[in-house]
Amino acid sequence: MTSSKRIVIIGGVAAGPKTAARARRLLPEADITVIEQGEHISYGSCGFPLYLAGMIPDLTSLSVTAAGLKRDVTYFAQEKDVRFLVKTCATFIDREHQEVVVWDREQKKESRLPYDDLVLATGSQPVIPDIPGIELKGIISLHHPEDAQLIRSAVQDGVKKIAVIGGGLIGMEAAAALSRPGREVTVFEKEEQILPGILDPEFAGLVRAHLEENGIQVFTGETLKGIKGDGKGGNVRRITTNKSIYDVELVVLACGVRPNIQLASACGLTIGATGAIQVNAYLQTNDPHIYAGGDCVENVHLVSGRKVYFPLASTANKHGRVIGSNLAGLQEKYPGVLGTVALQAGDYNIGKTGLTEAEAKKLGYPVRCALVSGHDTAHYHPLHGKGMLKLVVHEETEKLLGAQVVGIGEVIKRLDVLATALHLGADAHQIAHLDLGYAPPFATPIDLCLHGVHTLQNLKQGLAQAIPSRELARMGQEKEGDFLLLDVRTSEEARRRPVKDPRSVNIPLSDLRTRFSELFPQKEKKIVTVCPLGVRAYEAACLLKGKGFTDVAFLEGGISALPGLI
């Protein structure tokens, strides 16, 4: 390799600019050219929901550096000595002659760019349903800056009825950003829960309830079938699903994305089973002179070992750094992904790393789970917030397989701790002894992460039995079910917000040691202890077990995990 090598990068949003910047630092004399078919470069598309919510004034905020410098063509030329060709399409890759055929959209001119090494950072494209009426005005995919501008202009012009098609990450963020008093925002998800593949059903249900409490309607199990216009200006006015018909004025498509592989496929590069470009650990394609990264490639999942398509901006930037290093001959490997994702929907912070319980079981893992509720700081700190954590571990090895977090508190900090533990192959015992930072503004003495692992250990040791919120909800629907709900909150708590089920009785935990005999007439029934976070309910279950009650379980995560109970 020589320092004067010619590097051509196709794609100028995330992986492409990061590759160029890294390569320039390592190869000061290299000739680096980035081809971008659009007008905008190096922008943070993950900030679109903030723009829609009015939290940032304009889209230029998403394409400036921390120092306030705009990342445009001039910036890259002057700061990085990288040439950007915008409004230019790469139409073919001539691997034999190592040239890229490009088309200048403004000058209407074709030319060829020779390369020593080529990088594909072609990204992804939104999935557009093939249904009647999809071409109408007011149907927009939130994928490019122009899309975000169109959506914001529509709501500023007074649009009131908005349909978001897709209950995944982008759909949730878009719905929350667009929700305002006086607007009707409705989410339609074809699966039976929102955030499929990110959350297990019990957490997805909590997020759904939170959105609905904040005025966002959510319909699951509904598939978009058709769209009707006003018959005049070609504007959208009605959508039809497999279940009903709805009046709308704006449709935001958030149906997912698929990798842009046309260039790669046309020149004979290998496409993986996921439908994305196949790369090795060095992010090389089957052509050693062509690398690929970002949303156009597949990755290895670090838990399952399987190939997955999981496009994220954070992954794209990491890919760019690795490719830039390897263009300079450093032979750096990219190990893979955990599928770690974080998002905000309303006041809820939401995240997942590794495998969900459903995914782990589908892959054949023997799993054990624990769901806990707690505070993100000391409960007496004025800014404390509640959060919930679900851990999924391998039943036999106790290795962590995955984690999910939901709540208004700072749960993403906990997610990152667990993602690190998961990446390093930690088991429950190792996580239980992590020396995490504590001070009242930042955590509780036993952090929520450790609380979750301690619960797993308690359950394994048989100290108590837990009942999942979904199981108790099912039991609650069976009006004649022969069980007792033992509410161990204080009398004042129970008076303010009583348990709705008539099979409940309130005995505060502080009184239970002297009043447990009151339960003897119902000793043969299953007893489920409940409290807000699950801690007092766990203690009550242990106490009753010690008094000879044989069928006692506590509600995991407490009433926080099943808010409909009160």
UniProtKB/TrEMBL annotation:
Coiled-coil annotated spans: none
Molecular-function GO terms, alphabetical: oxidoreductase activity
InterPro entries under this entry?
FAD-bd_OxRdtase, FAD/NAD-bd_sf, FAD/NAD-binding_dom, FAD/NAD-linked_Rdtase_dimer_sf, Pyr_nucl-diS_OxRdtase_dimer, Rhodanese-like_dom, Rhodanese-like_dom_sf
What keywords were assigned to this record? FAD, Flavoprotein, Oxidoreductase, Redox-active center
Query: Sorted alphabetically, which CDD domains does this protein's record hold?
Result: RHOD
Name the SMART domains on file.
Answer: RHOD (SM00450)
State the Gene3D superfamilies in the record: FAD/NAD(P)-binding domain, Rhodanese-like domain
Q: Which cofactor does it need?
A: FAD
Asked if the record carries the keyword Oxidoreductase, the reply is: yes
Lineage, top-rank taxon, reads Bacteria
Q: Which residues form the Rhodanese domain?
A: 479-563
Tell me which family the UniProt entry assigns to this protein.
Belongs to the class-III pyridine nucleotide-disulfide oxidoreductase family.
Q: What is this protein called?
A: Rhodanese domain-containing protein
Organism this protein belongs to: Formimonas warabiya
